[in-house]
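Thread title: Can someone regenerate the structure for this chain?

I was given the following input by a collaborator and told the matching structure tokens would be attached. They weren't. Posting the sequence so someone can regenerate them.
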Amino acid sequence: MKKKGRILVIGITPPPYGGQAMMTERLVKAKFQDLDIYHVRMAFSNTMASVGKFSMAKIFHMFHVIWRALIFRIRFKTKVLYYMPGGSNFTPVARDIFILTLLRPLFNKTVFHFRAAGVSEVVKNKSGMLGNLARFAYRKPDLAIHLSARNPKDGEFFNAKRNTVVPNGLEDESENYLPISKPSNDIIRILYVGVIQETKGVLVLLEAVKILADAGLHVNVDLIGEYNSAEFEIICSTYCRDSGIENLVNFAGVQKGKYKWSYFRQADIFCFPSFFESESFGNVVVEAMMFELPVIATRWRGIPDIVRHDQTGILVDIKNPLALADSLNTLIRDTTLRIQMGKAGRRVYEDNYKIDRFLTSMEIELKSMI
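Best answer:
Regenerated them for you:
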């Protein structure tokens, strides 16, 4: 029997339910023909509010991660380290410096999967000893995987021996609901899914809703996700109350499974106005296309790879509530266009973003490291 290659994955899995954690979970649960995947779970944050923030518990957890990785390296002879570098501030980078400096010498090869885009931009702006330590920790991975060619060239910055692009892929959660029929009513339902934070464009969306309401358009907005802080929750609720749109906006919290998909089924338009510093792809956009929803999103990082402007949705510039409101107005007033874009998005999902395609690509790339 042919011996399988062995990969050690160090990465977060849910909770919290962010895109990176959920994609890691898909990878470590996959059944590959020629690979055995071993997983050391990072559990630095259980809520979105604690992501990227320092605590003593996280220091102790770093030692636990390293100890577990050593056990897997010795016991199962895993020779390839697969790691997802940190995000858009220096706290996760400092974590990476510690973990990678200790572990990388023990492995024959290192794969970096830049699910949080823009790590190079954080390191580039750090001078002195910390900047040098980061450059050393991230130096010359054997393979750098990016989610989009539009994202920052993190792999090139760290002199990766090889760079590649592997877009995400998702299970078809809508197939049991197709064809999706929308109830005919005068109120258009707009859906946002993601972390509820400023750089995801949440306030931009709320401002656009205010513009639409002032123009006499009848809309409801559902926002699914966890607030990144109590402070931002207050900012959002205050804005909605002061702007008179409190009754139009529903902050639904975290939704999973059939409860989450029910929002997709009932929505008319999906809106994702992100300018998030670590944005790299946007799984929720793919989910929307899966459910035949037209998408209005931003020209930011990898998002334009997914949303085809004027075909599956509309792209707008970041931080522009007027442009967002205008694009929403276009789709609100044109039912036929919404349906056409939604069905086109479904075809793009079927052709490019199914889970089997993603896992096949990942197996090919990881096998090349064996």
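The longest helix spans residues 56-76.
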